[in-house]
Every structure is written in C-alpha cells, then in structure tokens.
Specification:
By secondary structure, the protein is α/β, with parallel strands linked by helices. The chain has a 7-stranded mixed sheet, sandwiched between helices. A 4-stranded antiparallel sheet has the order 9-10-13-12, with helices on one face. A two-stranded parallel ribbon has the order 1-11. It has 14 helices and 13 strands. The protein folds into 2 domains: about 120 residues, Aspartate Aminotransferase, domain 1; about 220 residues, Aspartate Aminotransferase, domain 2. The chain binds 4'-deoxy-4'-aminopyridoxal-5'-phosphate.
Length: about 375
C-alpha cells in the first residue's frame, strides 16, 4: 500500500481547469497554430499595450536583480489612481494570488467561507486548500443572491467571496445591492469583492467600491491587470483594503510574488487610459456581434457585463462538451463549463471582430449539421 501524504482536504482538490493553450490544440487536432482562434480565457484580444511593452523592455535590463518586494513605484501608481494610502495595497501574482492570500490569512481548517453557485472556480479551490468549509449559496438568475448569502453566513464564517461582474455567468450586481449586503455582514467577516471585469462596465454602471473600503474595515476589493489591461501572461493584480486586512495578507504573501517586468508594465498600463477605452469599446461592439448571432441562431444566453458570454448550446447535458469538441476540430477554443455545473453551456470570450466571426461561422455550421 502506498503512503498517502498530506491532509484529506488537499487530496480532494480537483485542480483548476484553464482554457486550452493554442499550441496544445494545434498538436491534438493537427492544426496550424496561426489559424487557431482562442476565446477561452477572457484575455484581451488587443494583446499587450504598447506602453507596457516599452516599459518591459526597459525593465528587462535589470532582471539580474530581485524585484522591489514592496513594489514602491507600482503602489505609487495605484495610490494616485485610487486615492488610497500605501498600506492599503497588496500586490498579487495575478488577482488569483489575492484571493488565495485572503483564504490563507483569514481561514482556519474547519471554518466556513460563503460564495455563490456558478461563481469563480478559485473560490472553492482557495477554500479547500486551507481546509475551509464551503457554504455554496444557490444562484438567482445565474448571479449572486446577496440576500440569501447574507442569511447563509454562519457563526464560524470568516470570508465571503463576491465576483462583480461574475465569471463564468457575466452577471452584475448593482451598487445598491452590494451596499445593502455590506451593511448586513457582521464586522468580523471579511468580504472579498472581486472586480476582475470592472473596467468593462459602462459608465452608468460604475460605482465607487473604494469609498466602501473607507467605510468598511472588513472589505477587500480585488482588481486584476489580466483582462482590460491586457497583461494576463505577466500575472499581476492587487487588493485594496484597510490596514487590518492588508497587513495580514502581506505577512502571508511571498516577498517577490510580483516580478520586475510585471511591476514596470503595470505602471505603464494603469496610466494608459487610451488602451483601456479602446479595450472597452472593442468589447462592447463584440458583445453585440456575438449576442446578435446567438439571437439569430435562437440560442439562449445570459446577458453579460464582462468580456465573455455564457451561451446555452443544447438541451442535453452532453451539449457543451459535444459542441466544444466540434469547435476544437475547427480550430476554435472556447470554454466548456460542465465543471461549474453548467454542462449545456459554453463560455465564449469576446475577441476581435474577425475572431468572433470565425466562431459564429463554425457554431452555425455545427448547429446546422
Ligand atoms: N476573478 C475572476 C472573477 C476571474 O474571472 C479571474 C480570471 N479568470 C480572476 C479573478 C483571476 O485572474 P488573474 O489571476 O489573472 O488576475
């Protein structure tokens, strides 16, 4: 009999399934990499902003040295943009890191964490990795039911995860709903408001979550540079919270979790409002392109506020996997979401107009067969 290492709760973890890399699909299906369209990981179809590329080239010359462990210059850029003090900021190796740091520094084995059904896959993973007990609250119209989530908070709950907009469903909570929730949450329970897709929100939907951080010492807002800022491969995100939480996260954080190139690129990208606006515009146009096609194909979809759309591709539970395989054969990578309990759906990231068109053409052909 072989020895089993580690705690049961770690062995029970089902590893995160990311979008299939282009090179892997090319190998598996014998396709030309340059013809493959990847709409599977909510990346920015514009790629890396030129401003960030220039900053990285400069930073490359100094890679023989360790990064600034405290990210002084990047924190200065974040302070200027969000008007918060330095000791309210935690830098992360992607915002994933922030979510994990929250679980690691706040939850002991056996204590509970509240999150919604169909919310981001890292919430259950981060909970399980620390031996936490997940309290999964049933979704309402594919989104968070904040009234039910407030009611689900138990005496041993230490953490609540909320994604706004949510991934993979794209649903959005209006500011008033979140405020009402924050008022109800006990002061010792930390709320992580994960705003990975915030920059895609239309101006009339934007709200000031940093004002809530000033008001609520138990609120941690998480942001990423992976989506609208086009820096997914560099792994950079950050958390903003009052020092009571920020100090804890920084005790657990690895000192060099954000590398020098990422720090330099993030400073440039944070100040590149032109790129951000271009990304948001492209996304809004692509959303119309995709959803018009879904309407024409009579496919149900969940109205989305992110850079992706959840679409129902059939009524049987094998539909998502079946259509996904047919799309892969045609060189189109999207994301099956059976692991989220949504086997009839696919999540499609919004790409360039020609990428969206290639996906629509392939889907139309598959559905007609
Ligand atoms: N939160 C949500 C809701 C996401 O969808 C993602 C990316 N899939 C992340 C956090 C993490 O992204 P990153 O680690 O690249 O910042």
């Amino acid at each position: 009999m072989s020895i089993q290492f580690g705690p049961d709760y770690v062995r029970a973890i089902a590893p995160y399934q990311g979008g299939k890399p282009i090179s892997e699909v090319a190998r598996e299906f014998g396709l030309d990499e340059s013809k493959i369209v990847k709409l599977a990981s909510n990346e920015n179809p514009l790629g890396v902003p030129q401003s960030a590329q220039t900053a990285m080239l400069k930073a490359a010359a100094d890679l023989g040295r360790y990064p600034d462990a405290n990210g002084f210059d990047l924190k200065a850029a974040i302070m200027a943009k969000y008007n918060v003090p330095q000791d309210w900021i935690t830098l992360g190796n992607g915002s994933n890191d922030i979510l994990e740091l929250a679980a690691h520094s706040l939850v002991e084995p056996g204590q509970s964490v509240v999150f919604a059904q169909y919310s981001f896959a890292v919430y259950p993973l981060a909970t399980q990795a620390v031996g936490g007990r997940a309290i999964v609250v049933a979704a309402k119209d594919f989104g968070h039911d904040l009234v039910a989530m407030a009611a689900a908070i138990a005496t041993d709950t230490k953490l609540v995860f909320i994604a706004n907009p949510n991934n993979p469903t794209g649903t959005f909570l209006a500011a008033a709903e979140i405020e009402a929730f924050l008022k109800k949450v006990p002061a010792h329970v930390v709320v992580v408001l994960d705003e990975a897709y915030n920059e895609f929100l239309a101006a009339d939907l934007q709200y000031d979550s940093i004002a809530w951080v000033r008001q609520y010492p138990n609120l941690l807002v998480s942001r990423t540079m992976s989506k609208a800022y086009g820096l997914a491969g560099l792994r950079i995100g950050f958390g903003i919270a009052q020092p009571g939480i920020t100090d804890l996260l920084n005790r657990v954080r690895q000192p060099f979790n954000v590398n020098s190139m990422a720090q330099a690129a993030a400073i440039a990208a944070l100040n590149d409002t032109e790129f951000l606006q271009k990304s948001a515009r492209l996304n809004a146009d692509g959303y119309i392109q995709l959803t018009n096609a879904f309407k024409a194909l009579k496919l149900e979809f969940v109205p989305s506020f992110g850079n992706f759309v959840l679409v129902k591709v059939g009524n049987e539970d094998s539909a998502g996997a079946r259509i996904n395989l047919e799309l892969l054969k045609r060189g189109i990578i999207v994301r099956p979401v059976g692991n989220y309990g949504l086997p009839q759906f696919l999540r499609v990231s919004i790409g360039l107009p020609e990428e969206n068109a290639a996906f629509i053409a392939a889907l139309t052909e598959i559905l007609a067969a």
